[in-house]
Amino acid sequence: MPGPTEVQQARRDQGPTTGRGAQRREELLAAARRVFERKGFIETRVSDIAKEAQVSHGTFYTYFDTKEAIFKEVAHAVIESMLASMAILIPSEDFHDRVHDSIRRFVQAYRPHATMLALMEQVGTVSPELRELRLDARETFVRRTERGIRRMIDAGLADADLDVEYTAESLGAMLEYVCYVWFSLDRPFEEERLVGALSAIWEKALLPLPARKGTRKRAGRAR
Question: So what's the pLDDT on residue 216?
Fold first, then answer.
């Protein structure tokens, strides 16, 4: 494949300069996502994306130089969509409500993007560049969890002695993997029951020690 023309390179570097160009680029991204989700990353070819978008090869290369480049754009859009859907907090100071709401919103944000997230996981094992993309995406969610834990500590709701960084890493990994098993490996779960169980685990990990002891005592009396 010959290198891009000056016009093509300028469009890739600067983005579309017209409304029609911006629309065409968005159509290519939407088409690429459909093809990636249908065929997987390895089996997808540029010609498949161009056909799905009903454009020529030349039009594809006007905006993207490889399928890896457009995959990265689609992946970034997935992460931005997930973050936007999790941005609104419930107006509650109750510890249980805040944890439960956080878990539920992550599940709801993950569900529509499960196939792309699974592809990002798979592609990261074969491409160093895309592995960094997957790690960056995970880092975004871990840091978000870390900020949430720190806010709870500042409000006196969570244990001030927590190792916040590694607690966020561990709880985030658990939540991500459960969603992967649920939505990508099709393990059937009862949503309310699972969200409740995940919330209980998070609460026990985050609560100050006296509150954890009180929780165990109450659980013991209930049995």
Answer: 42
Give the count of alpha carbons within 13 A of 177, CB side only.
6
Residue corresponding to tokens 């960084």: 165
Residues in contact with 80: Cβ distance below 8 Å, sequence separation at least 6, in sequence order? none
Tokens of 58: 């030349």
Distance, in Å, from the CA atom of 149 to the CA atom of 203, rounded to the nearest integer, reads: 11
Q: How far apart are CA 176 and CA 171, in angstroms?
A: 9
> What 3-state class would DSSP assign to 14?
helix
Q: Measure the CA–CA gap between 115 and 105, rounded to whole angstroms.
A: 18
CA nearest neighbour of 155 among 213, 204, 95: 95
Q: What is the mean pLDDT of the chain?
A: 86
92: left (phi over 0), alpha (psi -120 to 50) or beta: beta
- At residue 35, does pLDDT exceed 90? yes
Mean pLDDT of 83-88: 83
pLDDT of residue 15: 56
Split at pLDDT 50, 70, 90, the class of 134 is confident
Domains and CATH numbers, the chain: 6-65 (1.10.10.60), 71-222 (1.10.357.10)
When computed from its CA atoms, the radius of gyration of the chain, rounded to whole angstroms, is 22
